[in-house]
Design brief:
The complex is a heterodimer of chains A (352) and B (191).
Chain A lengths: L8 H25 L10 H8 L15 E11 L15 E11 L14 E8 L5 E7 L9 H11 L4 H10 L3 H10 L2 E2 L7 E2 L4 E4 L5 E10 L5 E2 L1 H6 L4 H12 L2 E9 L19 E14 L19 E3 L4 H18 L14
Helix pairs in contact in A: 2-8
Chain B lengths: L9 H24 L7 H29 L10 H31 L4 E3 L3 E3 L7 H36 L25
Classes of the chains: A alpha+beta (352), B mainly alpha (191).
């Protein structure tokens, strides 16, 4: 039984101080965890904000790879991929695909020939309910090794002072390989001729439970005809979308999915470093693009091609990018869905 | 329902403290994950979804248990406004324990995200994709999370107030270890 004398008001001050301290410590820990006490923390909001051009983002659109066109088709798996992963998508069969060809720009109305990086988002669904989403681009390596460096690259590339970009390149020698690709690799005049690369390494788990580090590519089956950027520009600002609509209306377009298995000595956490070309590859199947639809009311519009949406049998590796991309893509999706009224939907759309 | 008991049953106390750990972890994981782009984001998100559904299931069980066993009466000398605050805050806590996981699940559904828990458990979508619903639910999930944490702090402060200032045995009704020898003292007249 407590002594009644201890319950007198004057002795409550200590108790109230304890209560106040407990609440303050709790609130402080929460604020710290939320990043409010760490203004230097690279948050999804900061990273996505850095993607915006100087005059602000295109409201209602993806914050990067904003120009794109939807497709549907199938992934025709040949069964070979089961050697590396037990994902159902690798079991021989045909699985529905929704995807999106896109340009690596925050401007949804950019001229095709002004955008060096092209991408594709792909979603493969299997009858067991698994969903595999991927977002791939056409350079063979990523420009920088860490998400922090990517943020710095975005900031540096927006600077009007050319010394800033020079300083960035000097501090990030790995950037040179991407720079070489960007300035010397041939362009093409069709999405159907583009090879897309996962760049990030993922861990594939096979039926026996063994893990394999894998990167993958979509290699075009269409013959590739190089073209210069000025010649591409002459074809018009939206040639890539017109071309892929035309091609697919005549015949399905195909890409071979090539899985590349790392040796134990290969870096899995650094997408600026290509793995040696002699590494084991597995042709797992064919992406068949059967129908093109404009994005405005197309089936890809409402999908966030988050590369960490993975089926049973594939998981993230120590590569820091998939997590950073997932966090940033989610922020982009949150923003654009809240700005849906700014997005020009075509008449006849049933979606709100 | 209205069994006259002086403390919560062992089952109720177990559920309370298990859920206390889950909910605190949940709130910290939530604010932590949305403010990071680090490698931990992916496992935190998977944990957040799994823990959220766990809390939903536990809260529903707890609600049933509460209807069966009831709760010890508050001290009769507790001022009416404090009794009202206690009842309303407990009601709000139950609403959030059940509502927040459902809002999160619905938000993922409205964003066309697959909802996959630990062990590759797949949950069905409970809403079709919708930009407006996704935005509404996102805002609800975000702001209610802070309200939830504020309510948890209030709950802790109130429990300590009962234990340290009023010394009325209310905290003892929910302590993890039984305290049958410390009954409620409804007739305190110390002032």
């Amino acid at each position: 039984m407590p002594d009644p004398s201890q319950s007198q008001p004057h002795s409550h001050l200590g108790s109230l101080a304890i209560i106040a301290a407990v609440v303050a410590i709790g609130a402080g820990a929460f604020a710290y965890t939320a990043g409010w006490l760490s203004p230097g923390r690279l948050t999804p909001t900061k990273l996505v904000g850095a993607l915006a051009p100087p005059d602000g983002p295109a409201l209602g659109h993806r914050r990067n790879h904003a120009k794109g066109i939807c497709f549907t088709g199938i992934f025709d798996a040949n069964g070979n991929g089961t050697a590396l992963s037990r994902a159902t998508a690798f079991v021989a069969g045909q699985y529905p695909v929704v995807g999106r060809f896109n340009l690596g720009t925050p401007d949804p109305s950019a001229t095709d020939a002004t955008v060096r990086v092209r991408g594709v988002g792909v979603q493969i669904s299997t009858p067991d309910g698994d969903v595999w989403r991927m977002a791939m681009i056409d350079p063979p390596i990523f420009p920088v090794a860490t998400p922090q460096a990517f943020y710095e690259l975005l900031e540096a590339s927006k600077s009007k002072d050319p010394e800033v970009m020079k300083a960035f390149a000097a501090a990030h020698p790995e950037f040179a390989a991407f720079g070489k690709w960007a300035t010397t690799a041939p362009w093409t005049a069709s999405y159907a001729e583009v090879a897309f690369n996962s760049l990030n390494a993922f861990i594939f788990t096979d039926g026996g439970g063994a893990d394999h580090a894998v990167r993958w590519s979509l290699a075009p089956q269409a013959p590739v005809t190089p073209i210069s950027a000025p010649d591409l520009e002459k074809l018009g600002p939206n040639h890539l979308e017109e071309d892929i609509m035309d091609r697919v209306s005549k015949a399905p377009q195909r890409w071979t999915m090539v899985l590349t298995q790392a040796d134990p000595s290969d870096p899995t956490s650094d997408p600026t470093k290509a793995w040696p070309p002699e590494r084991r590859t597995v042709q797992a199947g064919t992406l068949v693009v059967q129908k093109i639809e404009v994005e405005a009311d197309g089936p890809c519009r409402d999908i966030n091609f988050d590369p960490t949406v993975l089926p049973h049998g594939i998981k993230v590796s120590d590569d820091p990018f998939p997590a950073a991309r997932s966090a940033a893509y989610a922020k982009s999706y949150d923003l654009r869905t809240s700005e849906a009224s700014y997005y020009p939907r075509t008449a006849g759309s049933t979606k709100p | 329902m209205s069994r006259t008991n002086t403390e919560f049953t062992a089952l109720q106390r177990s559920l309370h403290w298990l859920m206390a750990i889950c909910i605190l972890a949940m709130l910290f994981i939530g604010v932590g994950m949305v403010s990071t782009i680090g490698r931990q984001y992916t496992p935190l998100l998977a944990t957040h979804k799994t823990l959220g559904i766990t809390i939903l299931v536990l809260a529903l069980i707890r609600l049933v248990v509460r209807f069966i066993y009831g709760a010890p009466a508050l001290p009769v000398d507790l001022p009416e406004p404090m009794k009202l605050a206690a009842h309303l805050s407990h009601l709000a806590l139950y609403a959030l324990m059940i509502g927040m996981p459902l809002i999160g699940w619905a938000m993922m559904s409205a964003g066309a995200y697959p909802v996959v828990l630990y062990g590759q458990i797949r949950l069905p979508a409970i809403l079709p994709q919708s930009d407006s619903l996704h935005t509404l639910l996102w805002n609800a999930h975000f702001y209610l999370a802070f309200a939830f944490f504020a309510l948890v702090l209030l709950h802790v402060a109130a429990a300590l107030f009962h234990a340290l200032v009023r010394r009325d045995g209310v905290l003892q009704t929910m302590l993890p270890v039984g305290n049958n020898d410390v009954p409620l003292k409804p007739q305190r007249n110390e002032h």
